[in-house]
Amino acid sequence: MAELRCLEWVLQSLKDLQYKEIIIGTESQELIEAVKKPSSWPRFRVILQRISVLCSEIQMVAFEAETGASNQVATAIAKSVLRDGRLQSYLALGGPAWLHNRILLESPVNDS
């Protein structure tokens, strides 16, 4: 339920920001399955209907399965928010130095 509510919030936020084409990556195969085949998840019918409406209001929405290894920066950000009790985004202010270093280390340019 938490992942579905998070997805609903993300879709609503991206719609409000007027994004037209989005790709959502997640480690949760169950989340992708629920969105693609909501009839198999009757317990979550109401929230899946809201998600479906949001998806239909955005020009293109795609879902991709991600591995934990490919999502390390997002995981580090989430952990820092929980660990440090952050109530406001620190990314809008440029983010901390450790984040810049992680992004540089994981960028495709450094994969060669």
Any descriptors?
RNase H type-1 domain-containing protein, nucleic acid binding, RNaseH_sf, 112 residues, mainly alpha, two-stranded parallel ribbon, 52% helix
Describe this structure in words.
The chain is mainly α and 112 residues long. 52% of the residues lie in helices and 11% in strands. The chain is built from five helices and two strands. A two-stranded parallel ribbon has the order 1-2. Helix 1 (2-16) packs parallel to helix 3. It is globular and about 45 Å long.
Structural class: mainly alpha
The whole-angstrom Rg is 16 Å
The helix-strand sequence is HEHHEHH
Task: Kindly state the percentage of residues in helix.
Answer: 40-55%
For the residues shown, what is the average pLDDT? 86
Largest sheet: 2 strands, parallel
Name the overall outline. globular
Beta percentage is 5-15%
Separation of the first and last Cα atoms: 39 Å
Total individual domains: 2
The strands making up the biggest β-sheet line up spatially as 1-2
Low-confidence stretches: none
How many strand units?
2
Q: Please, how many helices?
A: 5
Task: Please outline the helices and strands.
Elements: H1 2-16, E1 21-26, H2 29-36, H3 45-56, E2 60-65, H4 72-84, H5 97-106
Parallel strand pairs: 1-2
Helix pairs in contact: 1-3
In short:
By secondary structure, the protein is mostly helical. It has helices spanning 2-16, 29-36, 45-56, 72-84, 97-106, and strands spanning 21-26, 60-65. The protein has 5 helices and 2 strands.
